[in-house]
Amino acid sequence: MTDRHLYDKHADTLVRALAAISERGYWSAYPESPSPRIYGEKAAAEGATAFQAYLDNRFPLDQPGTDGWIATEASPFGVELAVTYPHAEAGALVAAATAAMPAWRDAGPQVRAGVCLEILARLHAHVFELANAVQFTSGQAFVMAFQAGGAHALDRALEALAYAYAEMTRHPGEAEWEKPAGSKASAEPLRLLKRFHVVPRGIGLVVGCNTFPTWNSYPGLFASLVTGNPVIVKPHPRAVLPLAITVRYAREVLAEAGFDPNLVLLAPEAPGEALASTLAVRPEVKIIDYTGSTAFGEWLEENARQAVVYTEKAGVNTIVVDSTDDFAGMCRNIGFSLTLYSGQMCTTPQNVLVPAGGIGTDQGHKSFDEVAAGIAASVGKLTGDPARAVELTGAIVNDGVLDRLDEVKSIGEPVLDSRVVEHPAYEGAIVRTPAIVKLPADAEATYGKEWFGPISFVIATDSTAESLEIFRSTAGTRGAITASVYSTDDKVLDDAEAAALDVGVHLSCNLTGGVFVNQSAAFSDFHASGANPAANAALTDGAYVASRFRIVQSRRHTTS
Amino acid sequence: MTDRHLYDKHADTLVRALAAISERGYWSAYPESPSPRIYGEKAAAEGATAFQAYLDNRFPLDQPGTDGWIATEASPFGVELAVTYPHAEAGALVAAATAAMPAWRDAGPQVRAGVCLEILARLHAHVFELANAVQFTSGQAFVMAFQAGGAHALDRALEALAYAYAEMTRHPGEAEWEKPAGSKASAEPLRLLKRFHVVPRGIGLVVGCNTFPTWNSYPGLFASLVTGNPVIVKPHPRAVLPLAITVRYAREVLAEAGFDPNLVLLAPEAPGEALASTLAVRPEVKIIDYTGSTAFGEWLEENARQAVVYTEKAGVNTIVVDSTDDFAGMCRNIGFSLTLYSGQMCTTPQNVLVPAGGIGTDQGHKSFDEVAAGIAASVGKLTGDPARAVELTGAIVNDGVLDRLDEVKSIGEPVLDSRVVEHPAYEGAIVRTPAIVKLPADAEATYGKEWFGPISFVIATDSTAESLEIFRSTAGTRGAITASVYSTDDKVLDDAEAAALDVGVHLSCNLTGGVFVNQSAAFSDFHASGANPAANAALTDGAYVASRFRIVQSRRHTTS
């Protein structure tokens, strides 16, 4: 069964994805709207039913070395999950993955790409099931979970797969080398036949996060897998289900295709087990993809020396407000960015830098306080009606966010207080609206670090020039995934772009419509740059995939 | 002057190089024969004269921060060099390089590629001067110095430059993104114009080696430079001149093209200064390319945590002899490989594994001792006449090699003793012929580590299967740059290839003619794999270049 039929089946998708990554225009392979007109009338209900069937049950995963069943999740929506997952020791997982590798390596890039594309298709066929799992573990509202956790995650997976495929196939599998006859050393041409093998690095370890269990895990998972590496998926203890579902269908497709399903393994950890640390320093683990806290990311970089380590960590995202020709649009856009998923995105803006003397707008001069109030009013409008609010904010992912919301009450001058919202559908859901706090420019000790969650600061600066200096300083020191600027002055936009280049942060300019700074589109936007402390890699570019395999050649003489 | 005219001038070369790296067949941009029919009647004499003019003189390099002039070289040919080089503190070099970076970054990939190609052309115009410098610092014989130190080094530089250029330009500089109108969020299409900037990582540090000062340094130097990074070149204290000449002409071209010449800086070190260690941990240094001892390579990987570190270290190269249909050709080929540059190549075979019971050949059965004697006789023939010998062996690069030649006398059973050869032209030259020693298979404590220099072991194994096990073990533990196998049995060749894949070592099969295991051809052969402990990168592939820069994007709305 290790033939090319799955490659042939999905070749059109791959070809289109390869074009998309080189054009970087708009493209998506997996429709982001959960509309029944696209997915059919039954899809949503079937997905919900499939999700429900997992609850209060053993997750259907037949993995080697299972030594117990564990449940560690607690839904931000207050829903009782009680899914138990098969636990195994690191040694058993590593042994199973190692044994699975050679046949997968020898299958070659095309066969592997075909199987991985089939896994993506299978996951897409279960996208509603996946969306429910993401919603109830991460706290995202349903539509966002469907998009970020389903369709967009699959798009990012396909993007990474396309880069990896391009990298593996940029050289031919074989080449004839013929050196013309020289004057001395050889009277006849020298001929060699050379074979170039793509060989995997070893085991890939993917360490998932709580907020975006699929979106942040899929690129590394599929980039490592398609390049020949078995992958052990270590989910966040509070967001296991989305990756368990992923591993389930990956194993199903691998087995159908004639490969060892242990090429993809779930590694749920018992409370306090620190399984990620144990796995990360195993000599067989050669690639690690991690999203989460700076502390553990730095620990991995420091200690997992045998592996290539890709990390996405904390950052301080910034908006520089200089002037605007659409004050209402600006406030609406920023307000939406702060509200979406209660600011629990690595791309959510935190620091809004506004000149203390105010700004010029299409509505005339606006004072610093008026700008802060405009943004606050926009958030207020989006969150005024509980039923509408919760579809935007979702729920709070964990107590750390609540703790920070408490802490920020004693800091600065509030522009907007965080409110408790009762969720109309889930009475146990923990819902909070964004808090906005005014700070002076010299409060860098406060705003210079990440306050993950629905917390942002409107900071009064001397001037836009000082705003840009603060942006350089915080992004340079703490890193950033996103930055944006509002100005009607091309010089300011150019200065902001120069600052963004210097500190290596992607910049959005004058977003006032339906594009938000915290959203990045697969195949077009690079997510993170790898050029500042917030991440050491980007989704997705050549650097993200090229070190996941090596080329080993053999050569022999030919006569012709 | 920061226009595209140098790009246009060299575009054909770049296009051809880009084709070559994707085809991996034979191609070379710089003729390897120093024949006057190719380079003209005067080239050799002019090169020698230019080289002579450097001796006993201050090297013409006008660099910032010069605080003294130092001479650290001692020629293996016994020639008095006495070239003094401008010394500067790490801080001065880093400051100058940092200041040079922004304009170089902003010039973009095409302009940078044009300038770098012009540097290569300038170096090629001075290739005889370069060859003399490589000869008299490394101890290579002239023709080898011309080839490996001149033409082939330039080919490898161009190869790295082509990979880097391809990587920088695989995405467009700008793209329009238009998302079709959705049902809810947007009634109209969303349009953004996105700009993708290639941004350098920081300063590149190239740490050169004694034996191949140019060949091993050029790929990293040009890969870092063309991707926008200033480069500080720290030569080996005993092989400064080839890189000083390189830096001289690079600075000349940069200045002519309107750029800050401090984009390329020479950092010669005073005795005991350990300047490489100081530079390597500077926060501004973001890329390091190193060739040399395993100890310092591992120190760099361990300590230069702020940088991407590419290292080529020690390894144990192996030949597995199973059988042959050309016994004479095999012995001739292996003998040549051991003799070339007195075995002072990172690609020279060290361990020749032969079944104790002998092998089948076109000359009938040959005993283990006959195989060893056949190889020894081949070396003896190549080194019998001093005048011919020295043109192959060159001279011994340093006392470490002599010490090992002494040490090996007390080990195993000699098959061939190393001899002292008087150099007909340079009476101070230190010339030694190869030593070959017989060892049993259980002497892994001896043959399991690198004996850099003209030292090899013929090791008696139980069988070819055991030979392959020993190959797996030594290459897996200590690493290897090359491996080769001789067999008339396709099954053995396949087994050897499987072993080579498992331990990540490039394999040559049945080399009996004019191709040698220690030679790799730019644009076709990968040098090192990055898949075993001998090196963490290959020359050259996507992984070698992709992490030398990042992409930073900016996006703004467009209306159309």
From TrEMBL, chains A, B:
NCBIfam families: PaaN_2
GO molecular function: L-glutamate gamma-semialdehyde dehydrogenase activity
Any Pfam family the entry gives: Aldedh
Keyword Metal-binding: no
Superkingdom assignment: Bacteria
InterPro entries: Ald_DH/histidinol_DH, Ald_DH_C, Ald_DH_N, Aldehyde_DH_dom, PaaN_2, Proline_metab_enzyme
Protein name per Swiss-Prot or TrEMBL: Phenylacetic acid degradation protein PaaN
GO biological process: L-proline catabolic process to L-glutamate
Residues covered by the Aldehyde dehydrogenase domain: 88-505
Record-level GO cellular component terms: cytoplasmic side of plasma membrane
Keywords, alphabetical: NAD, Oxidoreductase
SUPFAM superfamilies: ALDH-like
